[in-house]
Amino acid sequence: MAVVEERPAEEIEHELEEVWEDAPGIPGFFATVDHKRIGMRYIYTAFIFFFIAGLQALFIRAQLTVPEADVVGPETYNQLFTMHGTTMIFLFNTPVLAGFGNYLLPLQLGTRDMAFPRLNAFSYWVFVLAGMFMYTSYLVGAPPDGGWFAYLPLTDKVNSPGINLDFWGLGVIFVGISTTVGAINFIVTTFKLRAPGMSINRLPLFVWSILAMAFMIIFAVPAVTVAAALLEADRLFGTAFFDVARGGSALLYQHLFWFWGHPEVYILFVPAVGMVSMMIPVFSRRAVSGYVWAAGSLVAIAFISFGVWVHHMFAAGLPALAMSFFSAASLVIAIPSGVLFFVWIATMWQGQVRWTTPMLFSFGFLFIFLAGGLTGVMVSVLPFDWQVTDSYFIVAHFHYVLNGAVVFPIFGALYFWLPKMTGRMLSERLGRLSFWSMFVGFNVAFFPMHVLGLFGMPRRVYTYAEGLGWETLNVVVTAGSLLFGLGTLLTVVAWVMSRSRGAPAGDNPWDADSLEWAVASPTPHYNFRAIPVVASRHPLWDQQPLPEAMSGDDEGTRSMGTPGALADETPITTGLDAGAEETMEIPRETYLPFLLALGLAVFFTGLLVEAVVVGVAGVVVATIGLLWWAWRTEADLV
């Protein structure tokens, strides 16, 4: 028997806001478990790190603009390029994509929150504190200086006796906790919290991309966590995992690092692909062509990515036969990437393209990723890789893949989804200026690096002599870097202006097709008054008006309608066909995730300064947090 709510809609919405709204001020800031607030915090915090990394890059370019420059010394230069790479990989790219996933995944699935809201908050606080931990190194004058890859033996205690590398090693372990628990949350949410009717073959492509990313994280991130943990064990406790003189293996570190490192390229690329795959159909005014091929390609990329890590070790002296297998895998992974290109081109070809700012960034991504993919195929060939390894050709290649092919979709996503998050449109004029500045600046900055690499300029050098033929190209690269930086700042200006003067967005300003556009902008705290019923891959195009479920008397359906939202509940559905199964109670705000993350921060600080008392204090705080968390969970369930 269905429960029908007969009160006025305004009265119900007011009550829902009161039920779901976080406490105001500082208490709400530290205690929230709302996936939307956490997602936006991820995005904003990651962009703070993005602009810090950008400033570091500009200092690097200032030093390399002319031969024998003296802008920074060799030690400072090593610190700059170490923290630039570490920040972009660990503190910007992965977290900002997790932020979009946090905000959008429950909305696109048609549910009211993530599967583990408190774990979601814990993941964010660990990320923030890990970033602060790493950057505290500047306050004590000991920033990491061994490269973002921290190769042995340069980073052992003998060759790097200070605490610089300990900030890096412990920080990587710390932030790895955040990434891993976040991935678990994405997987469970996708499989168990979908709107009725949203079977696996109706998932939005962005959801497919986040799911693929999460599975890659589960299998890849433990490898770099182990690598950093063993490095720190050697440095802090005198073990010999990587000490060749005592029976260890420096090559083992490279295997562990790159077993994460190359899947990490696709951990970043796949969600960016998901973003583009949502934007291109909307601005082409037609359903995506080859949905099954696109979803299959995302899964194939995730799978094949674990067979290419030795791609980074072709110059390490490994057996040629073994390297040939990894070379073949590195070539094969281009096939599903090519399939995605055909899907996007077919979608645009059969549609009516509107050149909005999100579409411009998507199109820029296609061009840049194509160039990065072609050079990726080139360095997969052993003889060519041996010639260009450790040259600026490699720097150009991975910036085309990790910067251009990831950052451009992220900026497009800002213009596409920020109106949903803030309720205000961003300036199209500033957006177009931002795109063209970034697109031209990016290619002017990074394409000449291919030529510099072929001319013999090695990477990781802080200066170079005159007369080598590199001077003009380095000036061009620096000019392009400045233009690219200006383009990113224009988007910041557009965002600031939108908060006060942006046009109201409305519920669905782009006439898009997925469920996040079915709710108000900005999104209400409760997401959905009643859970939508899905019968299409494009529900807002094919189902008008969008049908809503009603609460029933059984455990599987009682939270479907408005009574479920009023009771802080959301339905749990079956894994494949999204049939009603049971009801989940959504926990309210709590300080426990912050307390637990703070305990871990104190523990890692104790390891850093080799103070047993501090480390024990961290363990005590974290243990109290865990026990309190478990007790509160049990109390909530009773």
Overview of the molecule:
By secondary structure, the chain is mainly alpha-helical. 66% of the residues lie in helices and 2% in strands. A two-stranded antiparallel ribbon has the order 1-2. Helix 5 (117-139) runs antiparallel to helix 6 (164-192), helix 9 runs antiparallel to helix 11 and helix 14 packs antiparallel against helix 15 (428-454). The chain is globular and about 80 Å long. The mean pLDDT is 92.
Helices, strands, pairings?
Layout: H1 9-20, H2 25-31, H3 35-64, H4 74-109, H5 117-139, H6 164-192, H7 205-237, H8 250-284, H9 291-304, H10 320-332, H11 334-349, H12 357-379, H13 382-388, H14 392-422, H15 428-454, H16 471-501, H17 539-542, H18 562-566, E1 569-573, E2 580-585, H19 592-609, H20 612-637
Antiparallel strand pairs: 1-2
Helix pairs in contact: 3-4, 3-5, 3-16, 4-6, 4-14, 5-6, 5-19, 6-7, 6-19, 7-8, 7-9, 8-11, 8-12, 8-14, 9-11, 12-14, 12-15, 14-15, 15-16, 19-20
Contiguous uncertain segments of 5+ residues: none
Assign a percent range to the helix content. Answer: 55-70%
In whole angstroms, the N-to-C terminal distance is: 26 Å
Rg, Cα atoms, Å? 25 Å
Question: What descriptors fit this protein?
Answer:
2 strands; about 65% helix; globular
Summarize the structure.
By secondary structure, the protein is mainly α. Helix content is 66%, strand content 2%.
